């Protein structure tokens, strides 16, 4: 399915992206750029394509939902980068692009003749974005899989129960964070090019992105010399800010200041706790966390979680039930967030259901022009667009 040319132009309309990315971090980045109007050409290997085409179950209409989730609004071109003719075609696309995104192991694109130095000599305005696992120097030989970075980058050490061996997040969170950081870098580089005409290289690693995203935990170490440890659902610097037990099921309670704590105590029927010297301020509550939770436990168990959610929310105390994804999307729908979108493709028996782009722009909204592409669906079309006749790949006009 070719892009819907009737869709309104997006903020990045006119920007051409050569997407050599696979799996998650880079494809997530290029999908966001595509949602915002960029024309993304996804270059895939023959036969198998992007690895995530085979990452299932689950499937939707025979296609891996993993792949479907990060590849809409793109065109797929099959090229064998180990073949001289295919590599020349890939170079033709790259030197005519505004942005190139790749996440091969460091050095791979250079060996293929598709490195930044070679391509920028042909296209000085090229924004060349490399996503790596551990950087391009000492970590070049390390494979950049999200699980490994969560483990080696410290995230698992602060996730899970205190007596556990470390727990990964329930999604490839580091890949997503890195894709977002890379997107910021690409947009900054495009703005620089707009002012100067100069492209540049953008480098983002999974490890550095994770260390930045660990935020207060990283700051505790860098600024305070403290090595944080896993605390289950508790927060190292705020209390009560954790999962508590209501009468029928758990409830997330996020008390961020003294006023909220006083309101919590009042609604629980124990107003005297807010005046207790052990709990008067947040540092006091953190220091006496166990005593605090023991004092709150019995009152919280007197009502169901939904009742507490309604009562405490009305009183200005942040809290909420622990939803599964079905309930989470129901919540988003009820709030009018339009968190999902349906893309219809005449080449498919069923419409493709997608999670909507969360960026809401008033003048240039995200658009859903085409479903995730079939492998090689647009090879002839794209090669013709970039100066090669359909047929033998070394045939030029």
From TrEMBL:
Q: Which GO terms describe its molecular function?
A: CoA-transferase activity
Give the originating organism. Answer: Streptomyces adustus
Any Pfam family matching the protein: CoA_transf_3
User: What is this protein's name?
Assistant: CoA transferase
What are the record keywords, sorted? Transferase
């Amino acid at each position: 399915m070719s892009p819907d040319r009737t869709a309104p132009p997006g903020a990045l309309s006119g920007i051409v992206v050569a997407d050599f990315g696979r799996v998650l971090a880079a494809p997530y980045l290029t999908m966001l750029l595509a949602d915002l109007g960029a024309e993304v050409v996804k270059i895939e290997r023959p036969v198998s394509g992007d690895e995530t085409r085979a990452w299932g179950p689950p499937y939707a209409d025979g296609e891996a939902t993993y792949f479907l989730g990060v590849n809409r609004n793109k065109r797929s071109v099959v090229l064998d980068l180990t073949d001289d003719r295919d590599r020349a075609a890939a170079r033709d696309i790259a030197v005519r692009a505004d942005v190139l995104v790749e996440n091969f192991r460091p050095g791979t694109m250079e060996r293929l003749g598709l490195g930044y130095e070679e391509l920028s000599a042909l296209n000085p305005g090229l924004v060349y974005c490399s996503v790596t696992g551990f950087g391009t120097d000492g970590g070049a030989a390390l494979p950049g899989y999200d699980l490994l970075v969560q483990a080696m980058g410290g995230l698992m050490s602060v996730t899970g129960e205190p007596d556990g061996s470390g727990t990964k997040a329930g999604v490839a969170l580091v890949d997503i964070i890195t894709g977002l950081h890379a997107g910021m870098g690409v947009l900054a580089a495009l703005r620089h090019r707009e002012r100067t005409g100069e492209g540049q290289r953008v480098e983002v690693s999974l490890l550095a992105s994770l260390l930045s995203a660990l935020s207060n935990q990283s700051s505790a170490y860098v600024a305070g010399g403290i090595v944080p440890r896993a605390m289950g659902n508790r927060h190292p610097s705020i209390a009560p800010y954790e999962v508590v037990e209501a009468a029928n099921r758990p409830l997330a309670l996020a008390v961020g200041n003294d006023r909220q704590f006083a309101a919590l105590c009042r609604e629980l029927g124990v107003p005297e706790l807010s005046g207790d010297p052990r709990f008067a301020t947040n540092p006091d509550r953190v220091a006496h966390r166990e005593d605090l939770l023991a004092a709150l436990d019995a009152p919280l168990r007197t009502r169901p979680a939904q009742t507490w959610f309604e009562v405490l929310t009305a009183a200005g105390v942040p809290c909420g039930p622990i939803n599964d994804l079905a309930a989470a999307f129901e919540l988003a729908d009820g709030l009018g967030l339009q968190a999902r979108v349906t893309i219809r493709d005449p080449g498919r028996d069923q419409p493709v259901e997608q999670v909507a782009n969360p960026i809401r722009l008033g003048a240039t909204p995200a658009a859903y022009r085409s479903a995730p592409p079939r492998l090689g669906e647009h090879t002839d079309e794209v090669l013709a667009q970039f100066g090669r006749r359909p047929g033998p790949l070394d045939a030029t006009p």
